[in-house]
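We keep the chain:
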Amino acid sequence: MDHSQSGGNILIADSGATKTDWCLTYGGEIVQRFSTKGISPVYQTEEEIAEEIRLHAYPLLKGKKVQSIHFYGSGCIPEKIVFVKNAIYRSFPID
């Protein structure tokens, strides 16, 4: 099934300082997996995080719409969570 125009896709990111593993799911099934550079709000600014996502993660989805994103990452301490959240909102058109 082509999910490029339907809702329900969930994007999960598991990030460390050196690599982020991304997994797009639909209805509990894996649709796509890919990796990008690591994301760490302790060492990167909000703009750097947004740029990494916008330039390297978003294009790999090739037009697939995302209903929600779940980001799990090192360095996501309470005072830095907002950086990652804002970077994601700026980088992905979420339905």
User: Anything to note?
Assistant: The CA atoms of residues 12 and 70 lie 5 Å apart. Residues 9-91 form a domain with the Nucleotidyltransferase; domain 5 fold (CATH 3.30.420.40).
